[in-house]
Amino acid sequence: MVFFATLTVAAVGFTITVSQLVSASGEKHADEAAVVTESTGPIKSVCEAQVAKSKNPDVEVPAEFNKPYPSLEACISYDAAGDPDAPGPNQPVAFSHKHHSGMYEIPCLYCHTATDRSKMAGMPSLEVCMGCHTWFSKDFDEIEGIRVMKDKWEKKEPIEWKQIHRAQEFVKFRHNRHVKAEPTLACQECHGPVEELDKLYLVPVKAFGRMPAKKMEMGWCIECHRTKEASQDCATCHY
Ligand code: HEC
Ligand code: HEC
Ligand code: HEC
Ligand code: HEC
Ligand code: HEC
Question: What's this model's pTM, rounded to 2 decimal places?
Fold first, then answer.
């Protein structure tokens, strides 16, 4: 799946692994850390060329791979989002929130349209994705996830995203009331710094009060309800 996990930089004679450029949780930027390991072969893709050029602007790149797209950032984010060793489920298309929401500042609600008005935050349909991606250069097809997305689109099949946050059946949870609470709750209060993550996972609760609990457990809900003076009645959250 991570088809350009190892990038080779022929002219300067070393190999770098994109995953090494970006920490598992995607906290580092491409330019922050370059880990150089062993040496090997020639440049075989635009993404490999992008990484080579970012290390050495004068590097010689075969003409067929000397293109602006996919961009260096797209290559690195795609690789980090698909890193099987990073926490979180491997998604059918390695989709990076850091890239879309962090770098391009696409608002959460552009994709998760239902969050402020319904129970479910909802997953974006392929129509939302293709609304942007139809306009992209064909050179982006080098990225496997882009090819998968376009293929699904042509076949009119949805992408089956794996759900990460899931409340139990016997629990009442609604996004709209939370998102519209006074004072407002940011998505990040419950989901962590999504816009900094290439690959999403259940980010652990950081500063936690008196009740030891993991996210999505009752103690987690109650602790916030206590501090925000929301209801702690059993019937608020249970049927
Ligand atoms: C508002 C426009 C927009 C929407 C909507 C959008 N994208 Fe993107 N996408 C981009 C841009 C811009 C890039 C990066 C271009 C670059 O850096 O060269 C990108 C890059 C990507 C990449 C490669 C980097 C990465 O994040 O892995 C994938 C895969 C991708 N998009 C998939 C999707 C999917 C799946 C959806 C729908 C859930 C989607 N995109 C919706 C604009 C969009
Ligand atoms: C008070 C905590 C809280 C806040 C704030 C919050 N969420 Fe959630 N989110 C949850 C919980 C709990 C679930 C699991 C819900 C379920 O299984 O029914 C969830 C599930 C989701 C899902 C999975 C699909 C779904 O609809 O269940 C998405 C996407 C999501 N949230 C996005 C967002 C976005 C975007 C925002 C901000 C606009 C946001 N959330 C704000 C707690 C929160
Ligand atoms: C361009 C579309 C797009 C934008 C913008 C976007 N998301 Fe997402 N989001 C997705 C897709 C696609 C998935 C499923 C793949 C994944 O988990 O990475 C997802 C998954 C999630 C999930 C996990 C849902 C679950 O299964 O539990 C949460 C939480 C979430 N997004 C929150 C946010 C927040 C918060 C923002 C704004 C900072 C945001 N998203 C912006 C497309 C988007
Ligand atoms: C980060 C803080 C926070 C977390 C975490 C949180 N809540 Fe809430 N919740 C609130 C606030 C604030 C309100 C009051 C909203 C209002 O009505 O203004 C509320 C209201 C509610 C309500 C009553 C409104 C409605 O939707 O009918 C329910 C039910 C609820 N929460 C369930 C849950 C469950 C279940 C969880 C855990 C899975 C949870 N909450 C986690 C802050 C939180
Ligand atoms: C703010 C929301 C909230 C309130 C208020 C709340 N609960 Fe819960 N409760 C939950 C959530 C969420 C779970 C599921 C925890 C999990 O999945 O680990 C849960 C789980 C439980 C379970 C465990 C069920 C099982 O099969 O493990 C019991 C029993 C329970 N609650 C009883 C109560 C009682 C009694 C009260 C009132 C004193 C109460 N709850 C108030 C959110 C709440």
Answer: 0.89
